[in-house]
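Example 248.
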Amino acid sequence: MASLEGQVILLSGASSGIGAALARLLLQSGSRVAMLARRGERLKVLAAGHPQTSLALTGDITRPQDRKALVEAATERWGRLDVLINNAGVGHYGDVLEANEQAWRELFEINFFAPVLLAREVLPVMLAQKQGLIVNIASIGALVAHSDKVTPYVASKHALLGFSRGLAKDLAGSGVRVKAVCPHLTATEFFEVSPGAAAMAPEVAKYRSYMDTPGEVAQGILDQLDDDGLVLFPTEKPQAAYQKMREL
Ligand SMILES: NC(=O)c1ccc[n+]([C@@H]2O[C@H](COP(=O)([O-])OP(=O)(O)OC[C@H]3O[C@@H](n4cnc5c(N)ncnc54)[C@H](OP(=O)(O)O)[C@@H]3O)[C@@H](O)[C@H]2O)c1
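Predicted structure in complex with NAP:
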């Protein structure tokens, strides 16, 4: 963005990884940041030192009342909403038939329905302002099946990219823009907390040294928010990986 100072930003999943790195950079830039995650104590640590420009809300992005509370807290405090960053998400590793119906539904609740429904909460405010930006943190798995045994995750992120694409088209000319971010391997807790993480660990270990850091990904996102186009690769690595996979 030309300047992030003073921008009112809603950020889900700020307690760890890419979200925490985004929160740090945004608060350093003078943005006003409302953060939501279940581990609220971590959000309070990020907010410390920024009492005027931070809101730390403990909540679950899949709960309607928690999504509403995030939007209301920011609008009541600051009177506007400039950017929604739908970052909270979870992975899933395992044989496709081992993922039961509940596992599929839970994954889609976090990775697809929560971002869609949070966008629905903020859009009336942004459309009235004739200005806003919705940033959906998707994945390279939104563009290609980037690995074996990640079918539910790939499906959820393809759905999120499809939503972003349709929304961008529908909002053209409204002043509200949409970006879909496609990171690749990033060294976060994602590979420890996602369902199937233990089984995935040997595979993950092979790529550890190749991973982007959350700080690199967060900086790459913020540097490109003003660029044209829907899909944003935060660093060169996911872009190169995508080109390679497209050629296969
Ligand atoms: N790491 C990668 O290689 C990679 C690659 C491509 C895309 N991504 C995407 O990047 C995004 C961030 O992932 P990350 O790598 O930074 O993972 P992470 O370190 O595990 O962070 C995930 C964040 O999401 C939050 N979250 C998860 N479920 C939530 C819920 N129900 N309600 C509220 N918050 C919730 C977590 O907070 P709490 O647990 O405190 O609630 C945490 O702050 C995700 O959308 C992920 O799919 C990651």
